[in-house]
Every structure is written in C-alpha cells, then in structure tokens.
Amino acid sequence: MTEDYRAAYLREKTLRKQAEQMLEDKSRELYDSFRKLQQAHDSMQENQKALLHNEKMASLGVLSAGVAHEINNPIGFIYSNFCTMSEGMSDIQTFVFTMDKLVNSDADGQKIRDAWREGLTRYDVEYLLMDFESLTSETIEGLERVKQIVADLKSFTREDSGEMDLVDVNECVRGAVNILSNQTKYHAQVHVDYGELPKVKGYFGKLNQVFTNMIANANQAVDENGDIHISTTYNNGYIEIRFRDNGHGISKEHMNLLFTPFFTTKPVGEGTGLGLSLSHGFIEEHNGRIKVESEIGEGTTFTIFLPPADD
Ligand SMILES: Nc1ncnc2c1ncn2[C@@H]1O[C@H](COP(=O)(O)OP(=O)(O)OP(=O)(O)O)[C@@H](O)[C@H]1O
Ligand SMILES: [Mg+2]
C-alpha cells in the first residue's frame, strides 16, 4: 500500500514537473512571440512615420519652388528700395553737413537762408523725404509678406508634439490656402468663407496637412479657369470644412478607392496617392469624418466634420 502510494506520488511528481516544464517552455515561446510582435509593431510605426515624413517632404519639394519665387519678388523690391534710399540718404547727409558747417561759421543770417533754399532745391529734399516715406512703407509691406510666407512654411512643416493642442481651424485653413497660393493662382480662383468656429482639440500640423492636400487635389482637378470654394461653418455640433471645386470629378469606380494608400490617377511624379489615405487617418484620430460628393464633369466636394473641443 505504502509502495503503491509512493509510486503514485513519484509518477504524479514527474508528471507535474513535465507539466511545469511545458508551461515554462510555452510561456517563454509566448514571450518571444510577444517580443517579436512588439518589434514588428515598433518598426511598422517607424515606417509609417518615415512614410508620413516623405509625403510631407515631397509636397514641400513642390512647394519650395513656389515659395522661393514668392519670397524673391518682395526681396527684389526691398533691395531696390534700399539702394534708392541709400543714394538719397547720402545727398541729405551732404546737405546737412554743409548747412551745419555754415551755421557754425561766422556767415550772416541771409547767407545761411540762401544756402538753405539753394540746398533744398539742389538736393530735391522735399521729393526725397516724400520718396523715403513711400519706400519705407512699401519695404515694411514687403517684409511683412516675407514674414507671413516663412510663418506659413513653418506651420506646414510643424512637427506635432505628442500632446494635442487647442487648434484654431480657420488659422489652419488660412495657412494651407496661403502656402498653396503660388500653385493655385495659375489654375483657379480660391474663394474662402471663414465662419465663426469653436476650437478643436488636435494636432495643427496634421490638420494643416489634410487641408493642404484637399486644396492641392482640387487645384489639380480644375482647368485653367477653375473655382475652388472653401468654407468653414459650425453646424449641429460639428465644425464643417468644405472644399468644393468645379474640376473633372471622380468616376463611380474610383469613389471606393480614394482612401486606399497609393491610389492615384496622377502621372508619376505628380502624386503618390497618399494624401487622402493619410487625411482619413488624421481625421479619424480627431474623431471626425470625411464626406465626398462628386459628379463627372461637374466637380467634387470634400467635407470634413470635426467635433469641437470640450469646454
Ligand atoms: N478634388 C478632386 N477632384 C478629382 N479627383 C480627385 C480629387 N481629390 C482626389 N481625387 C482623386 O483621388 C486620388 C487620390 O488622391 P490623393 O490625394 O490620395 O493622392 P494624389 O493626390 O494622387 O497624390 P498625393 O496626394 O500623394 O500627392 C487622386 O489621384 C485623384 O484621382
Ligand atoms: Mg493629393
């Protein structure tokens, strides 16, 4: 009896050990698989980040030629204004120094007054001062334009921090419209109607990228005399951002493919087909949605719905 009990005990002990070993092996395998899965997930996230960056850089490549042109124009007249001002300034300097010398000499009052009048005419002082005024205000305007372009470019390339901010959608749309104005001006009239909106809790950079892509798509869809209507409104608890164009439209077969990564009807070099799929992901991240309506030959309307930030 005792022997039987002992044998049973030993058998049970061996079995238990085997089971424990098996469990340990299995959990190690599980852990390894988990690690591998985590690594795959991490590298996928890295790839997605790189893809996102590439898409942004590709758009930036197209943009920078336009931006360079936009900046070059004000820089050109700012430079020329400064050259003119510098010449005028040296005339005024000569006049002031001559007068200063005369005033400090023992010349009589009449001589000084004559020299003053003669100098005013010779150096065209009245004209120079008026010219300075207009050159300065034109220069300030030019500098403000450059400043705005740089600010728009900065908002386009802005990397979102991990945290969501309170975003002014109108400001975000304005940035996208401005940054693309150099491309749209050759194809279309852009009409923007900004409504009064509550803020959105989200990522400025991502929303800006969505709006930029919407305008770029509309611009690529219209012929020379296109019209792009953009409006922002607050309706039924949702912020609506609408992009309407009178371009070539989207066929029924393509409607279901729009948000698929790499779906594009554009020639190589003109589109990677990532714009709408990224936009879709970004808008979902903001708990919003995108609606598309299109009629071949008539045009297309993309409407983005975003919930406002909680008060
Ligand atoms: N406003 C529009 N009018 C007509 N077709 C459009 C419009 N917007 C998008 N499409 C169609 O949807 C396709 C996918 O758009 P998406 O923005 O994803 O990529 P893309 O513009 O081709 O390339 P990318 O945005 O990466 O430069 C476009 O190639 C085009 O066929
Ligand atoms: Mg696009």
Describe the structure.
The protein has 311 residues and is an alpha+beta fold. It folds into 2 domains: 75-152; 161-306, Histidine kinase-like ATPase, C-terminal domain (Heat Shock Protein 90), CATH 3.30.565.10. Helices cover 64% and strands 15% of the residues. It is built from 7 helices and 7 strands, in the order H-H-H-E-H-E-E-H-E-E-H-H-E-E. It has helices spanning 2-103, 109-122, 125-157, 169-184, 204-221, 252-255, 275-285; strands spanning 165-167, 188-194, 200-202, 226-235, 238-245, 289-295, 299-306. The strands form 2 sheets. The chain has a 5-stranded mixed beta sheet with strand order 2-4-5-7-6, covered by helices on one side. The protein has a two-stranded antiparallel ribbon with strand order 1-3. Strand 4 and strand 5 form a beta hairpin. Helix 1 (2-103) packs antiparallel against helix 3, helix 3 (125-157) crosses helix 4 (169-184) and helix 4 runs parallel beside helix 5 (204-221). The N and C termini lie far apart (78 Å). 21% of the residues are buried. Adenosine-5'-triphosphate is lined by residues 213, 217-218, 221, 245, 247-248, 250, 258, 263-266, 271-277, 300.
